[in-house]
Amino acid sequence: MDWVMQLPAGEALQYKAELRKLESEPMKYISSIEQMALAEGIEKGLEKGLEQGRDQGRIGIIMLLLERLVGPVNETAREAIERLDARLQPQLAQDLLSFKHPDDLHAWLTQHQL
Q: The pTM is what?
């Protein structure tokens, strides 16, 4: 505020007194920059949480479909699917519709692991 506007001497003293009072109170005053940073952090956290939820839901559906199409999926394959890059998950979901045997899944995972 000091850099934006210069107050007359009497008002500057009053402003500084009010500012000190606000700063002495625990977290009742948050600057606009702190508010923006806090809002940005909350938004990023929500976005990340939603993204993780979508990924987990997608993996759950992939696992259900795989078990229906090729039978039980072993732990090694399950872990590989859970580690898949989110961009590969839709590709697996599409490709798995042609799987007939557990070896088809293993071949796909081998081909797409980086």
A: 0.59
Q: Is residue 102 left, alpha or beta, with left meaning phi > 0 and alpha meaning psi from -120 to 50?
A: alpha
Those residues with Cβ within 8 angstroms of residue 28's Cβ, 6 or more apart along the chain or in another chain: 22
Please enumerate in sequence order all residues whose Cβ is within 8 A of that of 81, keeping only pairs 6 or more positions apart, or say none: 59, 62, 63, 66, 73, 92, 109
Report the alpha-carbon distance of residue 72 to residue 68 in Å, rounded. 8
Q: Tokens for 87, please give them.
A: 């961009």
Map out the domains of the chain as residue ranges. 9-112
Summarised one tens digit per residue, pLDDT across range 34-82 is 778 888 888 888 888 888 888 888 889 999 999 999 999 999 999 999 8
